[in-house]
Amino acid sequence: MNRSSCFGLFARYCSLNVLGMLALSCYILADTFFVANTLGSNGLAALNLAIPVFSFIHGFGLMLGMGGATRFTILKHQGREAKASAAFTHVLALAGAAAFFFFSCGLFFSRPLAVLLGAEGDVLPMTQTYIRILLLFAPAILLNDLLLCFVRNDGAPQRSMAAMVTGSLSNIVLDYLFMVPLNMGIFGAVFATGLAPVISLAVLSPFFLGHHNTFRPVRCAPSPHLLGLCAAAGVPSLLSELSSGVVMVVFNAVLLSLEGSTGVAAYGVVANLSLVVLAIYNGVAQGVQPLLSGYYGSGDHPHIRSILRYASATVLILSALICLGTSLGAGPISALFNQEGDPLLQDMAVQGMRLYFIACPWAGMNLLTTIFFASTDHPRPAQLISLLRGYFLILPLALLLPRLWGLTGLWLAFPIAEALTAAAALALFLRVRRQL
Predict the structure, then answer these.
(1) Which strand (E) or helix (H) includes residue 185?
(2) CA 132 to CA 136: how far, in whole Å?
(3) Model-level pTM greater than 0.85?
(4) Labelling 123: which of 1, 35, 134, 137 has CA 20 to 30 A away?
């Protein structure tokens, strides 16, 4: 494969996946907009308290999808097609078990979960409703996450992108329909979110009905080793998604003590915009994952280096644009989610946006490096980076810095954690680079 065809593949996979992930991130952003404009700050606080549950479900789905698809691609490029389908079979079975668990939690434990996440007073019933319906739709969310990854890695990134975009656009349309003309409140928001992966699965289905797929469930003996290899490659994606939920819980608790529910609502604006920004970076990283895994499986190290150069340049260009946009547009963006005109919420959200997104260049490179390690059979460095940026650094900083600098310290916890993680990621990459 020559350099021009390598760049063409990168451009195709990366652009399609960025568009798809950007659309997928609009699940929660659309909810935020319509909830803020129909239910006010209490609705926004309830949504923000419930988002960690979505992060947990989506994170588990990504662990199975990314991990299983990575192993599938490596095995396929090594000419081991039967073993590749066995990898799909194993993660599909685990997804079924997880779906049963989440669905049961939705039936019996939605209120305790809402209380555990900090909901109280008028916010509690709305938080409980959002969590319950979200958990009941967990089977569709998990299956959609799993199949999106496998379809993309099976040579059909355009189909995967179309499913993500269609699901997200339907979510936005249904959000408006359920919450504005039908006045269904928080139930309408989460019902729209739950239906989106169902619609996405319908878009994916012709890929299977037309027998275009090379992966399928097969009869095979249970293999803890194979399942472990799949899980190891997917754990960084799980840790990354879970960290979003954990960080939100900690930030919400700190903000409740500093600024009350208005502070939580302001963070809701910043956090949900952050989901979109991180989705762009995940789009780049997950877009190059099939290429990195394929080249690694066939031993083509020069093209691995080329893909890394293209992806790194893309991340840095996007970071410059995002930093500029969030700095100059902080006021108008915050006002979109503050239809009540609360000046305190507006001031906190603007300050948060301008400080929080300083982290963009480091966050983007950290996500890319994580996917690089996971895609090339180096799960431990990938897991270490995910743990550093999602837990070991951000959580202590979120608790310590507000004691020193108040709300400003809390906003700076994210960029400082990402910068420190980037330094560690660079050191890990330089060690592995010698093998390429």
Answers:
(1) helix 185-209
(2) 6
(3) no
(4) 137
